[in-house]
Design goal:
Length: 658
Amino acid sequence: MDDGNGRGRTHPAPTGSPRDPPASFAEQATVSNGGIHEEFDANWPDCWDRAAELLSWIEPYDTVLDDEDAPFYRWFTGGKLNAAANCVDRHVEQGRKTHTAIRWEGKRGERATYTYQDLYVAINEIAAGLRELGVETDDVVTIYLPMIPELPITMLACARIGAPHSVVFAGLSADALATRMDAAESEYLITCDGYYRRGDAFNQKSKADNARLALEQDVRTVVVDRLGEDLPHVLGDAEWDYHELQATHAGETVEPVARDAEDMLFLMYTSGTTGEPKGVVHTTGGYLSHVAWTSRAVLDIEPEDTYWCGADIGWITGHSYIVYGPLALGTTTVMYEGTPDYPDRDRLWEIIDRNAVDVFYTAPTAVRAFMKWGAEYPGRYDLSSLRLLGTVGEPISPRPWNWYREHVGGGECPIVDTWWQTETGAILVSTLPGVDEMKPGASGRPLPGIDAQVVDADGTPVAAGDTGYLTITRPWPGMARTLYDGDERFVREYWERFSDPDTDDWNYFSGDTACLDEDGYITVLGRVDDVISVEGKQLSSMEIESAITSVDGIAEAAVVGRSSDSGDETDIYAYVSTERGYDGTDVRASIVGNVESVIGEAAVPRDIVFTPELPKTRSGKIMRRLLEDIANGESLGDTSALRNPEIVGEIQAERDGR
Ligand code: 6R9
C-alpha cells in the first residue's frame, strides 16, 4: 500500500507460529501431492481439466480457456452439461440412491433427511411445477426462502430447466427484494409464509407482498407453507402453494436441459459492506468445476463424509459450499436452519456430535462468538469425528484460530482459512490441508492454477512483508463473467484499476488489501475502504484489530478513523468486546501496550469503547462504515441491513456516557 511517499510500508504480517498438517490427516487427504502447484503451473490453463473431469458432461468441451475477449473470459467452451444432473442424477444412476444428500436440522429441533433419490424426485416435481407456471429457459427465478430444504430443491429445479436463480437472503427487506427483482426483471418468486425467529413466527409473506406491490412487472409467486397453523395465510392472485404444486406433478420427471458451459447458472447480489449491491453473473461449466474441485482439494470432502458449512444459502458461501460443491461430489451436506445460540450456546456442538460431522466450515465471526461464550460449550460434546475445520468471510487472527483448533479441533484438526469472494465464485487462496504448512492468521498461497499478486498503487509487486492491493493475474474457471447491471460496470469495478488494455494485460482487482510473506503466504487485511490514514500513514484497520485481539480476554475488535475536533487530524477509535470473565478495566492498558509494541504509537486508539457485540452485516461481517459514523457523531441512516441493529443504540449510549 502506498504510504504517501510511493513506498510500501514494512512490518511483519500478524501470523502465529507455523504448524504442519498432522501426518494422520496428510495420509488420507484427497490432495497430498506436494508438487501440485508446479504441476498446475507447467500445464496452465489445461490443468483445469482436472476440475472439469469431476463433472459429467453431456457434450465435451473443445477449449479449456478462450481469452479472445478478455476480461470477458470463457471457460470450457463448446461443452454442455446440466448442474442439477451433476449434483443429483448421476449419483442416483451410480447406485447411490439411498445415500443421504441433505441432513436438515430445523430451528425447533425438527430433523429431515433427503437421500439422493428423494432429492431427485422433489427436484423433478418442482421443475415440472415451474414449467407449468410458465418458467422458460433463461427466465430469472427469484428465491426468497430461509434455510429450509425447499431452498436448495428449488435452486436445483431451476438449474434443471435452465432458468437462472437469484436467491435473496431471507432476512433482507421488502425493498431489497424489490430492487433485486426489478434489476433482474424477474417475474417468478418462490417464498414462504414465514419462519421461526428464536421461538416466534415471523411473517415473510408480507415482505414478499410489499415487494410485489413496488414492482412494475407481474410476478407469479409460489409460497411454501412453513408455519401451518402458527401463521395462517391466504393465497391471492397468481399465487400457488408450493406443496400443492408439487403434488399435482407427483412422480413426473423433466429432462435436464443441456446448458452451454457459458450459460448463466445463477445471479447473486453481493452482500456489500460498502456501496450498492452488484448482480454477479455465474455460469455453469466453470463455476461448477471450480466449486467441485475446491470442495475436494481444500475442504477435503469425500462422498462418504458428513460435511457441514454453517453459512446461509442466501450468500455465495452457501451456494458454493452447502449446495453445489458438496452435492456435485455426492457427499452428505448438513443444512442448519437455526442460530448457534438457540436454544443454548452448545447447539452446533450437539449437531456435530450427533451427526458425526467430519468437516466443519464456518466464519471467523462465529469463532469469535464461540470464544466469547467459553470452552465449556464445545467441551460438553464428543467432537472427535472432526477431521478438518475451515473459515471464510473475514480475516481470522491467531488467537481465535488457535482457540478453534484447540477447543473444536481437539488440537489436531488442520484449519483452512479460505479467501474468496462472491465474484470469484470459489476459493482462490488457502493452504491445501494435506500438503501445506499452516500459519495462523495467514490464508496461504494462491491455490494451484491461481496466480495472485500483492501490488502497490502503480501495480508493481511489493516486497515480502509489505502491504498492498490483492490482485489476481490469471483468469480462473469460477470467476464472475460480468455484472447483470452491465459489462461496463464489470470492467470499471474489477479490471480497470490494474489492467492495461493496450497490451492486453488484465489483472483482477479484489478490492482487498493484503500482505505477502517470504513463503508466498497471503494475509488478507480487509477491504481497501477499511484503511485509516493517520499522520500520513496508511494503517489497515485489521492489523490494529489483530494487535488488540491478541490481548488475553479480547474476543473481538473493530477500529475506525475519527476526525479530531480541529478537523485536520484522524484519531483511531476502537470498539472492543471481551470474553466472559473480563471487563474493560482489566484490558485497557494491555491493548494500548500491545498496539504500541506491534504497530507503533500512531496506531494506538485515542478512545476505546467496550460493547457486548459489534454491529454485523447479515452475512456476519463487521460493519465498520457504521462504526465510523457513530465515532464521528454522524447520522446513521438506515440500519435495517444489520443483523443486530439493537446494538447500535447501546454503543451510542456507551459513547455518550464517556
Ligand atoms: C466468500 C465471501 C468477500 C470479502 C473479501 C474479503 C473478505 C473473505 C476471507 C476474507 C480475510 C478470508 N474475506 N474470506 N478476508 N480472510 N479468508 O465471504 O464472499 O461475501 O463476497 O465477501 O470477504 O474482504 O473481499 P463475500
